[in-house]
Amino acid sequence: MLADPNDVTTDPPDDRFVALVLPDDEWITEFLDQEQAATRIVVGSTMFFPRLVQTGAYARAVLKDKDDVEACVATRLRRQDVLTRTRFLAFLHYPTFRTPLVAPADMAEQARKLLELGARDNVTIRIVPEQAGYTPLANGPFGYLEFRAATPVVQLEHLRHGISFWHARVVESVQRSIDQLDECALDPAASAAFIAAEADRWTGLG
Prior knowledge:
Elements (H helix, E strand, L loop, with lengths): L18 E5 L2 H12 L2 E6 L10 H7 L6 H11 L7 E7 L10 H15 L4 E6 L13 E5 L6 E6 L2 E5 L2 H17 L3 H18 L1
Parallel strand pairs: 2-3, 3-4
Antiparallel strand pairs: 1-7, 2-5, 5-6, 6-7
Helix pairs in contact: 4-6
């Protein structure tokens, strides 16, 4: 647990393959600490909306197997305060909008929340469209965090484990993936149009 986000130090001790693997809910605390300290966050999502942009209804559906669902939802929504100060970029694969975890009205609400967030100066939402073909998102979702004076971190989630990577080869690989996604994703304006159309489509299905 980081005592102070200003004191975050994520630099690896040497050039070994450096990773931190945490089980069950322990990784959530580690990821949250990293999010709070980050100056820039980039996420790639394949089938589900990222935690930092979820509505309460969507988060509730994702967390439905938790014993304390409402407490977990409240924590997840509080985490989103980082979007008031941290540069945030999300690459969302188009099937995310075609995976109805919640009722149509809630899917429409989720899409409208993305539009609201994307209107902020520090938040950018990019859609990776069907015509993009094969992209790095085929390898799964990821998180990439930069800090003011520390090594960037790559976050991966697998089943009930969370993994943080600091090794240069992993970080550089994800940086290249971000560059590739930047080339194939719709620009912010076209992405907003796509999201607005999805909001209307889900509203019509409600």
